[in-house]
Amino acid sequence: MRSIFENGPVEIKDQNDRELIVRKDGFSLNTGKKEINVSFKDIRYTNVTRYCNSNNCYMVMMIGKDGNNVEFDTDLPHIDGVHNILETKTILTAFAASRLGKDFPNNLRTLDIELGHSLKEKLISISNGVIKGAKNSIKIDDIHTVKCVSNGAITRFAIYTGSKKRLFNTPDFAVACNELTAPLLEAIVTKNTGKGIDFSRGNGFDQKTSEYALIRYMDSDFFINEDGTFNEEWQKDAYFRIAQYGYDVKNLMSQFE
Fold it and tell me: Can you give the residue range of the structural domain that contains 128?
Protein backbone atom coordinates (compact mmCIF):
# COMPACT_ATOMS: atom_id res chain seq x y z
CA MET A 1 0.00 0.00 0.00
CA ARG A 2 1.11 3.51 -0.75
CA SER A 3 -0.28 5.99 1.77
CA ILE A 4 -0.37 9.76 1.43
CA PHE A 5 -0.29 9.92 5.23
CA GLU A 6 3.23 8.48 5.34
CA ASN A 7 4.39 11.82 3.89
CA GLY A 8 3.02 13.75 6.86
CA PRO A 9 -0.30 15.08 8.19
CA VAL A 10 -3.07 16.11 5.81
CA GLU A 11 -4.61 19.45 6.84
CA ILE A 12 -8.08 20.59 5.79
CA LYS A 13 -9.30 24.07 6.73
CA ASP A 14 -12.40 26.08 5.85
CA GLN A 15 -13.44 29.72 6.23
CA ASN A 16 -15.32 29.10 9.48
CA ASP A 17 -12.30 28.32 11.69
CA ARG A 18 -12.84 24.59 11.23
CA GLU A 19 -9.61 22.59 11.00
CA LEU A 20 -9.08 18.87 10.45
CA ILE A 21 -5.61 17.35 10.71
CA VAL A 22 -5.37 13.69 9.69
CA ARG A 23 -2.28 11.64 10.46
CA LYS A 24 -1.40 8.03 9.76
CA ASP A 25 -2.20 7.11 13.37
CA GLY A 26 -5.19 9.35 14.12
CA PHE A 27 -6.67 12.81 13.67
CA SER A 28 -7.71 16.00 15.41
CA LEU A 29 -10.76 18.10 14.56
CA ASN A 30 -11.29 21.66 15.78
CA THR A 31 -14.76 22.91 14.91
CA GLY A 32 -14.26 26.35 16.43
CA LYS A 33 -16.46 25.31 19.35
CA LYS A 34 -14.88 22.03 20.43
CA GLU A 35 -11.81 19.94 19.72
CA ILE A 36 -11.70 16.19 19.11
CA ASN A 37 -8.56 14.05 19.21
CA VAL A 38 -8.66 10.41 18.12
CA SER A 39 -5.95 7.77 18.05
CA PHE A 40 -6.77 4.92 15.66
CA LYS A 41 -5.27 2.35 18.03
CA ASP A 42 -8.17 3.09 20.41
CA ILE A 43 -10.86 2.48 17.76
CA ARG A 44 -12.52 -0.85 16.93
CA TYR A 45 -14.50 0.19 13.85
CA THR A 46 -16.52 3.08 12.40
CA ASN A 47 -20.13 3.79 11.56
CA VAL A 48 -20.96 6.67 9.21
CA THR A 49 -24.57 7.81 8.89
CA ARG A 50 -25.95 9.25 5.62
CA TYR A 51 -22.63 8.78 3.83
CA CYS A 52 -24.10 6.70 1.00
CA ASN A 53 -27.53 8.32 0.66
CA SER A 54 -26.74 12.03 0.76
CA ASN A 55 -24.05 14.40 -0.44
CA ASN A 56 -23.03 16.40 2.62
CA CYS A 57 -23.27 16.60 6.40
CA TYR A 58 -22.50 13.07 7.60
CA MET A 59 -22.38 11.79 11.17
CA VAL A 60 -19.27 9.76 11.97
CA MET A 61 -19.16 7.46 14.98
CA MET A 62 -15.83 5.96 16.01
CA ILE A 63 -16.50 2.86 18.14
CA GLY A 64 -13.95 2.84 20.96
CA LYS A 65 -12.27 -0.25 22.37
CA ASP A 66 -12.99 1.00 25.88
CA GLY A 67 -16.71 1.46 25.21
CA ASN A 68 -16.43 5.21 24.77
CA ASN A 69 -17.53 6.28 21.30
CA VAL A 70 -16.65 9.52 19.52
CA GLU A 71 -19.28 11.25 17.37
CA PHE A 72 -18.89 14.26 15.09
CA ASP A 73 -20.26 15.74 11.85
CA THR A 74 -18.23 16.03 8.66
CA ASP A 75 -18.38 17.77 5.27
CA LEU A 76 -20.99 20.29 6.37
CA PRO A 77 -21.02 22.69 3.37
CA HIS A 78 -22.80 21.60 0.20
CA ILE A 79 -20.91 22.16 -3.04
CA ASP A 80 -22.79 21.53 -6.28
CA GLY A 81 -21.40 19.21 -8.93
CA VAL A 82 -18.98 17.18 -6.81
CA HIS A 83 -18.98 14.45 -4.18
CA ASN A 84 -18.76 16.33 -0.88
CA ILE A 85 -16.59 13.79 0.92
CA LEU A 86 -13.22 15.46 1.54
CA GLU A 87 -13.19 15.33 5.35
CA THR A 88 -14.96 12.00 5.69
CA LYS A 89 -12.97 10.11 3.09
CA THR A 90 -9.67 11.46 4.35
CA ILE A 91 -10.40 10.20 7.88
CA LEU A 92 -11.73 6.84 6.71
CA THR A 93 -8.84 6.27 4.30
CA ALA A 94 -6.28 6.96 7.03
CA PHE A 95 -8.10 4.62 9.41
CA ALA A 96 -8.27 1.88 6.76
CA ALA A 97 -4.57 2.27 5.96
CA SER A 98 -3.72 1.89 9.65
CA ARG A 99 -5.77 -1.32 9.87
CA LEU A 100 -4.96 -3.02 6.57
CA GLY A 101 -1.25 -2.28 6.94
CA LYS A 102 1.60 -1.31 4.65
CA ASP A 103 1.78 -4.83 3.19
CA PHE A 104 -1.79 -4.72 1.86
CA PRO A 105 -2.88 -6.21 -0.54
CA ASN A 106 -0.07 -8.76 -0.23
CA ASN A 107 -1.16 -9.77 3.28
CA LEU A 108 -4.67 -11.11 2.66
CA ARG A 109 -3.94 -14.45 4.34
CA THR A 110 -2.33 -12.93 7.42
CA LEU A 111 -4.76 -10.08 8.12
CA ASP A 112 -6.32 -10.34 11.57
CA ILE A 113 -8.66 -7.38 12.06
CA GLU A 114 -12.25 -6.46 12.86
CA LEU A 115 -14.24 -5.40 9.81
CA GLY A 116 -17.44 -4.10 11.35
CA HIS A 117 -20.68 -5.14 12.98
CA SER A 118 -24.16 -6.25 11.88
CA LEU A 119 -27.35 -7.30 13.66
CA LYS A 120 -27.18 -10.79 12.16
CA GLU A 121 -23.48 -11.54 12.37
CA LYS A 122 -22.60 -9.33 15.35
CA LEU A 123 -18.84 -8.75 15.13
CA ILE A 124 -17.40 -9.47 11.67
CA SER A 125 -13.67 -10.06 11.28
CA ILE A 126 -11.04 -11.64 9.05
CA SER A 127 -8.41 -14.03 10.37
CA ASN A 128 -6.30 -16.76 8.74
CA GLY A 129 -7.92 -16.18 5.36
CA VAL A 130 -11.50 -16.52 6.67
CA ILE A 131 -14.15 -13.81 6.99
CA LYS A 132 -16.40 -14.74 9.87
CA GLY A 133 -19.32 -13.57 11.95
CA ALA A 134 -21.49 -15.06 14.68
CA LYS A 135 -23.48 -17.27 12.28
CA ASN A 136 -21.51 -17.63 9.06
CA SER A 137 -17.98 -17.76 7.74
CA ILE A 138 -16.42 -17.81 4.30
CA LYS A 139 -12.92 -18.61 3.06
CA ILE A 140 -11.48 -15.81 0.96
CA ASP A 141 -10.18 -18.34 -1.60
CA ASP A 142 -13.78 -19.44 -2.25
CA ILE A 143 -15.16 -15.98 -3.02
CA HIS A 144 -16.24 -15.76 -6.65
CA THR A 145 -18.54 -12.74 -6.85
CA VAL A 146 -19.15 -9.63 -4.75
CA LYS A 147 -22.08 -7.32 -5.49
CA CYS A 148 -22.71 -3.92 -3.97
CA VAL A 149 -26.42 -3.66 -3.12
CA SER A 150 -28.40 -0.83 -1.57
CA ASN A 151 -32.00 -0.09 -0.65
CA GLY A 152 -31.31 3.61 -0.36
CA ALA A 153 -30.73 3.51 3.39
CA ILE A 154 -28.22 0.68 3.81
CA THR A 155 -25.39 -0.24 1.45
CA ARG A 156 -23.76 -3.64 1.79
CA PHE A 157 -21.71 -6.24 -0.07
CA ALA A 158 -23.33 -9.54 -1.03
CA ILE A 159 -20.66 -12.26 -1.24
CA TYR A 160 -21.01 -15.44 -3.32
CA THR A 161 -18.79 -18.50 -3.46
CA GLY A 162 -19.86 -19.84 -6.86
CA SER A 163 -21.12 -18.78 -10.26
CA LYS A 164 -24.29 -20.89 -10.17
CA LYS A 165 -27.65 -19.10 -9.98
CA ARG A 166 -29.51 -19.63 -6.72
CA LEU A 167 -32.99 -19.17 -5.33
CA PHE A 168 -33.73 -15.48 -4.70
CA ASN A 169 -30.05 -14.76 -5.39
CA THR A 170 -29.28 -15.26 -1.69
CA PRO A 171 -25.61 -14.52 -0.90
CA ASP A 172 -23.38 -16.81 1.15
CA PHE A 173 -22.34 -13.89 3.32
CA ALA A 174 -23.16 -10.18 3.57
CA VAL A 175 -21.16 -7.37 5.15
CA ALA A 176 -21.62 -3.64 5.47
CA CYS A 177 -19.95 -1.50 2.85
CA ASN A 178 -17.22 0.43 4.65
CA GLU A 179 -13.65 1.66 4.38
CA LEU A 180 -12.26 -1.80 5.28
CA THR A 181 -14.59 -4.19 3.48
CA ALA A 182 -14.48 -2.27 0.18
CA PRO A 183 -10.71 -2.49 -0.51
CA LEU A 184 -10.48 -5.92 1.11
CA LEU A 185 -13.20 -7.50 -1.03
CA GLU A 186 -11.98 -5.67 -4.14
CA ALA A 187 -8.57 -7.25 -3.61
CA ILE A 188 -9.96 -10.72 -2.88
CA VAL A 189 -12.37 -10.98 -5.79
CA THR A 190 -9.92 -9.42 -8.26
CA LYS A 191 -7.23 -11.86 -7.17
CA ASN A 192 -9.61 -14.81 -7.46
CA THR A 193 -11.39 -13.98 -10.71
CA GLY A 194 -9.76 -10.99 -12.39
CA LYS A 195 -12.97 -9.01 -11.89
CA GLY A 196 -13.62 -6.50 -9.16
CA ILE A 197 -16.73 -5.83 -7.11
CA ASP A 198 -19.91 -5.45 -9.16
CA PHE A 199 -21.14 -1.88 -8.64
CA SER A 200 -23.67 -1.98 -11.50
CA ARG A 201 -26.80 -2.09 -9.36
CA GLY A 202 -28.43 1.17 -8.24
CA ASN A 203 -30.28 2.00 -5.04
CA GLY A 204 -33.80 1.91 -6.48
CA PHE A 205 -34.17 5.67 -6.16
CA ASP A 206 -31.82 8.31 -7.51
CA GLN A 207 -28.69 6.27 -8.32
CA LYS A 208 -28.49 4.03 -11.40
CA THR A 209 -25.32 2.32 -10.11
CA SER A 210 -23.62 1.98 -6.74
CA GLU A 211 -20.36 3.53 -7.91
CA TYR A 212 -20.96 6.29 -5.36
CA ALA A 213 -19.90 3.70 -2.74
CA LEU A 214 -16.67 2.98 -4.61
CA ILE A 215 -15.92 6.70 -4.74
CA ARG A 216 -16.56 7.10 -1.02
CA TYR A 217 -14.65 4.09 0.27
CA MET A 218 -11.88 3.22 -2.20
CA ASP A 219 -8.49 4.72 -2.92
CA SER A 220 -6.33 3.34 -5.72
CA ASP A 221 -3.19 3.67 -3.56
CA PHE A 222 -4.44 0.71 -1.50
CA PHE A 223 -3.40 -1.55 -4.39
CA ILE A 224 0.09 -0.34 -5.20
CA ASN A 225 3.32 -0.94 -3.31
CA GLU A 226 5.09 1.91 -1.49
CA ASP A 227 7.73 2.04 -4.23
CA GLY A 228 5.14 2.30 -7.02
CA THR A 229 5.40 -1.33 -8.15
CA PHE A 230 2.95 -4.23 -8.22
CA ASN A 231 3.66 -7.76 -7.03
CA GLU A 232 1.01 -9.28 -9.28
CA GLU A 233 -0.96 -8.25 -12.36
CA TRP A 234 -4.32 -8.31 -10.59
CA GLN A 235 -3.12 -5.56 -8.25
CA LYS A 236 -2.41 -3.35 -11.22
CA ASP A 237 -5.90 -4.07 -12.56
CA ALA A 238 -7.49 -3.05 -9.25
CA TYR A 239 -5.32 0.06 -9.03
CA PHE A 240 -6.28 1.43 -12.42
CA ARG A 241 -9.93 0.43 -12.00
CA ILE A 242 -10.21 2.64 -8.92
CA ALA A 243 -7.89 5.41 -10.15
CA GLN A 244 -10.06 6.13 -13.20
CA TYR A 245 -12.75 7.65 -10.97
CA GLY A 246 -10.41 10.41 -9.82
CA TYR A 247 -11.53 10.46 -6.19
CA ASP A 248 -8.40 9.34 -4.36
CA VAL A 249 -7.58 11.48 -1.32
CA LYS A 250 -4.77 13.17 -3.23
CA ASN A 251 -7.24 14.10 -5.98
CA LEU A 252 -9.75 15.46 -3.48
CA MET A 253 -7.06 17.60 -1.86
CA SER A 254 -6.15 19.16 -5.21
CA GLN A 255 -9.83 19.87 -6.01
CA PHE A 256 -10.34 21.91 -2.87
CA GLU A 257 -7.02 23.76 -2.71
Answer: 112-246
